[in-house]
Design brief:
The protein has helices spanning 15-71, 74-85, 90-126, 133-158, 162-218, 231-260, 265-303, 306-333, 335-340, 350-375, 379-405, 407-432, 439-443. It has 445 residues and is mostly helical.
Length: 445
């Protein structure tokens, strides 16, 4: 007589539960990560004054531009493919992680070295501020760590390891605010950049430990053998995704240079940066929603679950647009008071803020719709049809409007660019449809 052993059923979290959990932990992490950035911008504006804060904002813009280019969308790629294969093919997920880790280390090193070498030329010839050479040189260490951190955060998101990611971001956010504030108070602009470098290095250590623990927990071994078999992941997904970065942040940076080269340009840059910081506060929760949605939508795609795929998409779209509408309204009403937090001289930035808040509607809709495009790996098409037209429009409008309208011209250029992006994205999604088949990802092998 045989005895049948019945194993206890393992409870599978529902879609709503996974969305809530991911959203909650991502909100906590984002509040401390991006919130600490916003808080320090307020502190820096008051400590440094409007003119020097404008220079700090320009250096931040430069570092963000170079970081997005140097990342080559490695974090974005890690989120998609780790989420898609961590359950169905953990070995492949480990190989992809190894390949992207190696790739990120190379691009981070090249980007940091390049910035170090050209810091003098960039500050003197392009930014017309030779005194920024040393801060930009310090920024090369910031760039190195930011690129690596982008990959690590993308990998943790792909594993749905939101708790570990949130813990790392909470601690790094606290350390960032404390370090940058203390060093800016002691050393002004150079102190602020030194604080950025130290805090970025500490964040790298925390994120690397979190990824190591999560890989061990999920039984995924990071492998460096067989990376050549996954080269199409780089060529057909990461590369076109990176090309968007090659145009997006450089377009914003080029528009910033148009602004700072005007009479009183760094003062106008300070106004734009303050308004942009408040706009970022509006879109940060929708971005959190989309980070969770990206991981889930690709996980359902990898399993071939078409119903779950569509449920994630519509849940993500509804949450994104609802949060954007509420956030833009609240910040718009409280705008004058919020701008005064940066200092009394920022009061005249309210029209710029309202214009940037208007851009959050097309920006949020385009980001939510883009989930369909990235899940089907239509990255080359999205680069040519969405990113490139958007960024060309941004630069053209900025070139035409900034000499006449300063910071407002920059804001109007952003509004036009995001409207173009929404229309192009909507056309692509209508062409692609909402199916969750996995044929595109399989062809990337």
């Amino acid at each position: 007589m045989s005895t049948e052993v019945v194993l206890p059923a393992v409870a599978v979290p529902s879609l709503q539960s996974r969305f809530r959990t991911g959203f909650a932990f991502n909100v906590v992490g984002a509040v401390f990560n991006q919130g600490s950035t916003f808080a320090f911008n307020v502190v820096a504006a008051n400590l440094l004054g409007r003119q020097i804060f404008g220079k700090y904002a320009m250096i931040q813009s430069t570092l963000a531009t170079l970081a997005l280019v140097a990342q080559m969308s490695a974090g974005f790629t890690a989120t998609k493919f780790v989420a898609e294969f961590r359950s169905t093919n953990p070995r492949r997920a480990g190989v992809i992680l190894g390949m992207l880790a190696t790739f990120s280390a190379c691009t981070a090193g090249i980007g940091a070295l390049l910035l170090l070498l050209i810091s003098g030329w960039l500050s003197g010839r392009i930014l017309k501020a030779p005194e920024l050479a040393v801060p930009l040189a310090i920024g090369s260490l910031v760039l190195l760590c930011v690129v690596l951190n982008g990959f690590l955060m993308g990998a943790l998101a792909g594993m749905e390891s939101y708790r570990r990611l949130a813990i790392a971001l909470v601690w790094s956010g606290i350390l960032y605010l404390a370090t940058c504030t203390a060093l800016a108070w002691r050393g002004a602009l150079i102190g602020a950049l030194s604080g950025l470098a130290i805090s970025a290095l500490l964040q790298f250590i925390l994120l690397a430990l979190a990824l190591w623990k999560e890989c061990k927990l999920q039984g995924i071994q990071v492998q460096f053998r067989g990376m050549s078999q996954e080269r199409d992941v780089l060529l057909k997904f990461a590369l076109p995704g990176a090309l968007s970065g090659f145009t997006t942040m450089p377009a914003l940076w080029l528009a910033s240079t148009f602004l700072v080269r005007q009479p009183g340009g760094y003062s106008q840059m300070a106004i734009y940066s303050a308004a942009f910081s408040l706009m970022t506060a509006v879109v940060f929760l929708p971005n959190v929603v989309n980070n969770v949605g990206m991981s889930l939508i690709n996980h359902f795609k990898g399993k071939g679950d078409h119903v779950g795929f569509r449920q994630v998409f519509w849940t993500n779209f509804g949450l994104t647009m609802g949060i954007v509408a509420v956030g833009a309204t609240v910040v718009g009403v409280a705008g004058p008071q919020l701008l005064r937090v940066f200092g009394k001289s920022f009061n005249d930035g309210y029209p710029v803020l309202l214009t940037l808040l208007a851009t959050t509607i097309p920006q949020g809709a385009a980001t939510a719709l883009y989930q369909i495009i990235q899940s089907h790996a239509k990255m080359w098409l999205s680069f040519l049809a969405v990113a490139l037209p958007r960024d060309v429009v941004l630069v053209a409008l900025a070139y035409l409007r900034i000499p006449h309208s300063g910071a407002m011209g920059f804001a109007l250029a952003c509004a036009g660019a995001y409207t173009v992006a929404l229309l192009a994205t909507l056309i692509l999604v209508m062409h692609t449809g909402l199916g969750g088949g996995n044929s595109q990802s399989e062809r990337l092998r």
